[in-house]
Amino acid sequence: MDRSKHLLRLRDWDSERITQTIRIAIRLKNEIREGKPSNCFAGKTIGLFFEKASLRTITSFQVGMHQLGGMPILLDPKSIGIDQRECVKDIARCLSRWVNGLVVRCFKQSLVEQLAEHGGIPVINALSDDYHPCQALAFGQTMIEQFGEDLRGKTVVFIGDGNNVANSLMELCAKLGMNFTLACPKGYEQKAEEIELALPKFKENGGKYRQFNNTKEAVVDADILYSDVWVSMGQEEQKDEKQSHFLPFQINDELLKLAPAHCKVTHCLPANRGEEITDSVMDNLQVNLCYEEAENRLHAQKAVLWQLLH
Fold first, then answer.
1. Any catalytic annotation for residue 228?
2. How far apart are the first and last CA of the chain?
3. 135 part of the active site
4. Is the whole-model pTM more than 0.90?
5. Is 184 a catalytic residue?
């Protein structure tokens, strides 16, 4: 399988392609704002297969495909019944004869991989338990809009669980020469193998990877603080246990005072206000970039479609 024909995880794309994708996203965003939508995907269709709940991802892919002149089709997981009504291999082969691309939001990364392996069309990972590359690209676009295209040396501090979003942000930072810091309770770090795979790219591009089990040390040189929910979808039974560990890892006004004055905040959303981030930070639009990042999901994903379906 040629992984470059898909977006399964950001690790599969080199720095040049990531930067090029963000440039395309910014161009497409400007064209929409100028009232110049593209019609380049007229006659093309993407299938949207979502096992997990979604607001931003499913809406932005539908709107994005429409803005590019194509059509999205929602695929109901219950009706399809992967490995119940039909095996993944047969589903992938059939879908490849009807649609031009497949957007998948699911639990297991292995499902995204299998659909790409057995189908003949580009597959885009719209979130799995291991990675969220679309979110990372939208964040990269937001960072470039905020700080300029050369992001080398910028420090991203992720405060929370070493989860799928953290993994993809780490990959983005490693490829673009940024520093990535994870601040989390002991036992909730990213998997060692994920870090080991990223470290050579950090070294190659001049960035650094760090871990802290407290927030005060982590934020002293931060350019941006990143937050996510403490309990990811599918882990609801861990909520009480996790909250007891994560309470000191909240982004609030007191923590921001310990960061540099120029430091910004963002969140991949949805946010549990009063848990991982306070109302006062969420509603401080001079500091919080999460709504710009949410808008950029639309344009970054259009840029991914542009790269893979053009």
1. yes
2. 19
3. yes
4. yes
5. no
